[in-house]
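Troubleshooting log. The previous run stalled partway through. Resubmitting the same two chains, unchanged.
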Amino acid sequence: MKNIILASLMVNTFIAVSAEDRIPKFEVAPVEVAFSATFTGIQPDASHKSGDNLIYKFTGQVFGPGMDGQLQLEGFSGKTDRKTPWETLTELVNAYKRKDYEKIMSLYSKVSRDDLDAMLAGDMKDKYLNHIGKIQSAQIIAGFEYKGGFLVIYQAKGIGMSTCYMTQSKKKFLITAFKDDGPESWNLSLYFKFKPEPMKQPELITKMDSFEVSDSKSFSFRLSKPGNWLVVFKDKVGEGTLYNAQDGSNGDVNKEEGVMDVEFNSRKVSSNKDYTLYAVETNYPVTMVTETLIKNAMRFGFRVYKK
Amino acid sequence: MRHMNKKLQKNLYTIVFVCVSLGAFAQGQQADKYLYVSKQTGEFCQFQGGQGKTTDKYEHGGVTNVVVDGPIQYQVNPADMTIGINQTKNWQGKVWPILAQCPAPGNSVWSKLIAHYDVTYSRPQGVGMGGNVQSTYECGAGSIDDGCAFHGPAGGTHEIINKIGTEEQPFEVFSINCVIPAAFTCQNGTATLHADIYPGNGGDVTWQTPFGQLQGNDITVNLPANFNNIPVTATYTVCGCSYTAQGVIRPNNFTGFGLPCCVSGTQVVANIAVLQFDGPCWPPVVFSQAAVAPMPDMMTAAHTVTAISNGVPFVASTVAVAENNTWTYTPLAVDFTKLGKIVETIADAVKSVSGSPFSPSVNVTGQINIGSGKICCPGLPNCVQNADKIEGQVGVGASLSCRFPVYGIPYVASLDALLDVGVNASVGANITTTCTDPKACITGAASLTLGLGLGLSLAGGLVTADLRAVVEGAGVELQYCFLPAPATAAYTVTLGKIKIVGSVTTLEIFNYSVEYVLFEGWQSGPHPINL
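Second attempt completed without errors. Output:
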């Protein structure tokens, strides 16, 4: 997975709004992101496709390694000038923590407040407040100018990743309901979720060149990094993979960290047949076989026989 | 004008060819004509006819010599074959073969008349070809009609032409013949009267038989049940000439009679009998029974049949097999619940990861039965063979539900998808094994339903995820082989593109339209199952 971030990584600085408040510095620059469009969920985007990659260029701010996009949840005064997206976002996550619906509502542009009420009609409002109240910490992932406003992607421990769209009103950034029909923001959200790394070839631990069809046999693979994904497939572009699961997830039957087992039984293989399969290690889910997947995979084979 | 010149020439040639000039003349070579003779009766046929001619003041000439080539002769009356100017003459003539010089019956010979002529006539200048121009004159130059308009329009220069040449008329002289073959063809008491006639390009054949006079060649007559030699006479007549031959309808000897080793159902003996005679004329055959048929409530029935022709008997046997009799059926041991593996295969393909454990629910209705009977296999050493019949109707409904994670949503680790797979197969069997194929196999399609639910209201950074999976085409092809045992099935599953479509709304009301492909398409199989 090719991952290029051309933006200059900005020095992490904070602006003191009040004596206790710490807000990440808002500073945008041109950014280019390129990545292979092989992982699950990527929507077709011909206008940004170049070969096997999707390339997106925008003006914004990406909080990479070594940069603190942490949003203050302890000791925050509760009020900013909302002059940057980060000030508004800091107010929002603090309002989430306090389940302060009035405060949350005040952070929305007037045109969107009715939308929020409508979305949280009935018992949804209570569920919503319970849900957002689980927030423990929050981190800005990225933000960029987008379709006349500013799109923010952040990660909050307790409620997960989210995306919000802000527009300026009287020099204040306010959250605005937005219906996005294009794939760009979706694909960028996926990109920032996984930060895809180049595919790797897992190590095949099990040495077995044949087995009887009625036996259920497992092949074990060791991954280079615990928590990564193992993808096993046939060289049939467009088909679903035979197996894909994340190390440590429910789909990983081998409880040893960084080791995953793929089971083959009579439902998956037929007797008197030679099989050649492929395996790759990724840090993101893959459900469909592509040329890129085959190109980067390790190959292993076995014969299934019948007594 | 050209027409007038040709008309003059034609009339001059007619002096010689009065008998044959009814057709269109081609200068120099005339169409072939046929003459017939019978060496047997001395009869022959001839051409005869007449033609007249009136000349103008320029036309005169005639045939200077006639040469005969071949066994023919001619006669013209008046014998003088010349004509002067301004004269009218009429000729009668005929051509006939010289019998003694004609070939043997069944042969022909070519002959011809060759006429040498010397004629003078007039034609407008520049019109027509051939001949030598003797002189010219101005047609109609004076006030008095000078007669030149007789051969062409008045006016202009006309020529006086002299032409010397030959004309030929070929004749083919046939010596007719009629031969009755040594043996007639007779079948089922009917004889075909056939004579070899020559030349056969016309005429007719008349038969004299004990059954009366019959007209035509290759005609049929019904023979009596028992007969010996029957004399017949054939007379071939063409152009007044006839040739007669005599023959005998002679019955051949009955030398053999056979029946198939077995027959299916009821059969007419005459249709299945294999008869042998020592020649082509077969007298009528009478069988001791008209048909062979299975016995009621029995699978087979042996029959011995006697065939008699002209008093000579032969005996043959066969077995009539009741292939369509109601067979006794017993249930065939087939475990259709094993078709539940189809939905397992589909579920494995769609989810491709470990999900909730699942096992299919399979409902089977109906039954497949097997019955044993007999079939007739004439080509096999033991021609009555055992056969199996598979019949019955079975409905198989297999379904399963399982949960598995679907990836590709940025705001949650995964979505919990509920997969419902259903397969409904209807098996209708009505197959009988054959003499050469002991298999009883059928193919059929099964309906496949696939549901993939992805509802989500509040999780992670999402408030709602109104997503669903769209499956673009899915199907199952099945083949069952009930015999030879054990019964097996094989299935091939085809899944079309599966897409995730819908919308996602984040906590902060950022709404996406979503459409991405889980996989493009997939086909798997055939997967064999022992039922």
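Takeaways: Chain B touches chain A through 48 residues (CB under 8 Å). The first helix of chain B runs from residue 2 to 14.
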